[in-house]
Amino acid sequence: MDNATVHKTPEGLQAIRDRGSALLLLLPYSPFLNPIEKCWAKANQEVRKISLMTNEILADCKEVAAKTVTAESCGNQREQARLKNLKKKEKENKGKSSLNGMTVTQKKEYDAAIMRAKQEAAAAKKAAEGAGKKK
């Protein structure tokens, strides 16, 4: 859990203990461990664009900001991390592999073709072993 005060109230802590669980807190301000932070950052970005004079303006602004927070704008954390790692590996392996210059889709297709070939080879080996036992 994050370190928000509301998460550490005596009632909340007791409810956690009553269920046989323990409270594990994240490091102080660790947005990389809490993907919702990216959504809040997007909403805050929209709110800051508007000069707030009254609570009504703030309420309207919250509605507008909430509509801008989508799965696409916040991003799929796992997919973004995977693509970032893939780009990093491509950069590290530049000139070391025959796979350079392939797009992510091409690499996926290449990997799928390798897996199919391995599966076919394993199936053929199993069939050959089965035929050998029947003799």
TrEMBL record:
Family as reported in the entry's similarity comment: Belongs to the SERF family.
Cross-referenced Pfam families, in alphabetical order?
A: DDE_3, SERF-like_N
- Taking every annotated instance into account, which residue ranges of this chain make up the domain Tc1-like transposase DDE? 1-49
InterPro entries, alphabetized: RNaseH_sf (IPR036397), SERF-like_N (IPR007513), SERF1/2-like (IPR040211), Tc1-like_DDE_dom (IPR038717)
Small EDRK-rich factor-like N-terminal domain span: 75-108
Source organism of the structure: Rhizopus microsporus ATCC 52813
| Protein name, per record | Uncharacterized protein
Region (Disordered) spans which residues?
Answer: 80-103
Q: Which Gene Ontology molecular function entries are recorded, alphabetically? A: nucleic acid binding
